[in-house]
Amino acid sequence: MNLPAPNSREDLATKPNKFRKHVMEELRGKAFVYFCVLLLVITIFSIVYFIASRGLTPFLSQGVSIKDMLFGLKWKPEGNPPLFGALPFLFGSFATSILAAVIAAPLGFCAAVFMTEIMPKFGKSALQPAIELLAGIPSVVYGFVGLSVVVPFYRDTFPGQGIGIMAGATVLSIMILPTVTTIATDALRSLPNGLKEGSYALGATRWQTIYRMILPTALPSLLTGVVLGIARAFGEALAVQMVIGNAPHIPHSLFESATTLTSIITQSMGNTTSGSLHNNALWSLALILLLMTFLFVFIVRVLERRVKR
Amino acid sequence: MKMKKTLLTTLALAFAFSLAACGNNNNNSNSGSSSSPSASPSASASASAPAETVSGSVIAVGSSAMQGLAQAVADDFMAQDAYKDVSVTVQAGGSGTGLSQVSDGQADIGNSDIFAEEKLEADKAAELVDHKIAVVAMAAVTHKDVGVDNLTKQQLVDIFTGKITNWKDVGGADQKIVIVNRPSSSGTRATFEKFALGTTTEDLQGSIQEDSSGTVKKLVNETPGAIGYLALSYLDDSIVALKYEGVEPTTENVATNAYPVWAYEHMYTKGEPTPAAKAYIDYVMSDEIQNGFVIEEGFVPVSAMKVERDAAGNVTNK
């Protein structure tokens, strides 16, 4: 790292040019890093501040109570009196993202086990790139595929219009699959070899080793992947909005039009004027979304701490 | 220690500089023609010439329904020799965004499907100048197999308020009605509710809300028993356009207000438009565009209208 001061003074005497060059290098590098970090911190704080300042206005000065928003069932922002019950959105967001994780987690875990334990070569060369490719597909494409393939399939197979939480969860599960799989694979790869070898030495079969040794040991890391997947699903807007139907009600079935926090924001934000109560209420929903994401990050941190132990 | 201080100062300076640069950019785009430094020499050079060249940039933000038309006209406008120094940027984002941005001075033109008075507060709306550039008409559309080709106002109200839930109650097939609506804040929905239903409706349990006309069309086409509404430009054989009180949704019927479900497409400016914005709006209003792009994009030219309607909905003969 840094040279001690006396040494550098010696250098100064003998090789003044080289020393100046190094100082300049050091300075430039430092300035660049500091600048980037400063920019990053400013950006993060201004985003949080902006959303909070807009999102808190309905509660602080426009007479909407937090309780009504979190537990109200009726969303009628243009009604008289306007009602801002966001429970259907919260319900929709949680239902779709948790259902998506329930679908994606087994798939992701199995893919990870396959890639690390069963066929590492084929897994690394073919399966992993294929799954990672899923992460590169734009969400509007997912939405369109969902609308053209998933929704008609559900419409023909189950009672209802095909649109709804199940369709949203299906699309989301494919979208979060890369997150879940990549983290699970990394976790399984980083397990010490001795663990597996010890298990085999005791006479355990491969399945017993995977089921009894590898999965329980890697569980906190696997859960980290799932929580990150849920966080991604929670924040996804476009693809879900296209297939969920967007009725601001808690649906009676998985195949009935429902809505999420993100889809109500994307649908209404552009149609409302800034500063209006309706617009500010949407910012409140954005604030709720942000707080939920913080919560997910917090859960991930807790899980990571368990991994280290 | 000292180094750290200089570093911070440098950073602060760099930051301030970049902010200032941003500020400058904004100024340029807002004030339009004259303040842009690259344009000023040519402006002074041609000041004596009788043909004045317009230059500067115009930002038009708002209604996604108008995006196609505004963009097509903007491309054509910028290709004209007289306006080659003007750059027009058209952004979608919704009528509400368009109105707030033009009202705040972030955009030169706010595109809107509805009158500013309906969205903005009265004093803010009063600052805006309305340019009605076209008329858009909407028709109720259904899935092919519902067997209905005409609905009265009362029947539509009953359907969209959930009183009628089966097509057989309005003379169609025995099929559950699926409503494909627009979000409650949408300008298209506001127009449909105001002029077809005459009342506002709630989002019903099980109803579908979609903002994009393409998605609405796809869903109405595919979902058995679906009803929605679309601008005339989206109508084709894949869906059935309904008559309203026995009147077909055609350009002629819209022009005479015999078919009342229509609204103006507005371009709002804050006060009088900048020269560049004015040139663009004048170009949109020219006969060539009104009878060309406006009709091609499925709108009705304002000049073809035999009636006028104000923000309160009062119709007068022209």
Automatic annotation (TrEMBL), chain A:
The record's subcellular locations are:
Cell membrane
* Topological type in the membrane: Multi-pass membrane protein
Record keywords:
Cell membrane, Membrane, Phosphate transport, Transmembrane, Transmembrane helix, Transport
Could you tell me which SUPFAM superfamilies the record lists for this protein? MetI-like (SSF161098)
Q: Which residues form the ABC transmembrane type-1 domain?
A: 90-300
Q: Which GO terms describe its molecular function?
A: phosphate transmembrane transporter activity
The GO cellular component terms are: plasma membrane
The protein's matches in InterPro entries, at most eight in alphabetical order, are given as: MetI-like, MetI-like_sf, Phosphate_PstC, Phosphate_Transport_Permease
Q: What is its main location?
A: membrane
Name any Gene Ontology BP term.
Answer: phosphate ion transport
Q: Which CDD domains match?
A: TM_PBP2
Domain of life, per UniProt, equals Bacteria
> Where are the membrane-spanning stretches?
31-52, 89-114, 126-151, 163-188, 209-231, 281-303
The entry's family comment says: Belongs to the binding-protein-dependent transport system permease family. CysTW subfamily.
- What is the purpose of this protein? Part of the binding-protein-dependent transport system for phosphate; probably responsible for the translocation of the substrate across the membrane.
Concerning NCBIfam families, the annotation shows:
phosphate_pstC
Q: What is this protein called?
A: Phosphate transport system permease protein
